[in-house]
Specification:
It contains five helices and no strands. By secondary structure, it is an all-alpha fold. It has one domain: Four Helix Bundle (Hemerythrin (Met), subunit A).
């Protein structure tokens, strides 16, 4: 398994644990109200689970499962992947903190969204050359 995949999947699992913890705290607070400010974790919880867990896991699995390129760069330009990893995690953290702090940090959430978008673009650039039809399927499509 490529090193980038390992980092993406491990970071996704860490964020899954954090997201589940936030969700469990809010759910327990719903059953037995003990801290009304816990509801401020709702949007960070959604951000961490949807982008921190789901998106990061999908990116890690895609890096592993897409066909490799022959040659030295068999996984594409890995610098794009590492930059995507850093930007995605920084973006999730910035958006979650922006939501948690509240309206005073709307700019922080916006910076986080831009970082997440750039992470998706860089990841797409890394795997772009690996997304292609199988040689036999390409020849069959050409004959049709």
């Amino acid at each position: 398994m490529p090193r980038q995949t390992v980092y993406f999947v491990r970071a996704a699992l860490i964020q899954l644990g954090i997201g589940f913890t936030f969700g469990a705290l809010m759910l327990s607070n719903k059953g037995i109200p003990y801290e009304p400010t816990l509801w401020r974790l709702l949007f960070p919880h959604v951000e961490i689970v949807l982008l921190g867990w789901t998106m990061q896991l999908a990116m890690g699995v895609a890096l592993w499962i897409l066909p490799r390129i022959s040659g030295a760069r068999k996984y594409g330009n890995e610098r794009f992947g590492w930059a995507a990893f850093g930007l995605l995690n920084a973006g999730v953290l910035a958006v979650a903190m922006g939501y948690w702090v509240g309206s005073d940090a709307a700019a922080l959430a916006m910076v986080g969204r831009v970082a997440e978008f750039l992470a998706a673009v860089l990841f797409a650039l890394q795997v772009w050359s690996r997304v292609k039809p199988i040689a036999g399927a390409a020849a069959q499509q050409a004959n049709e």
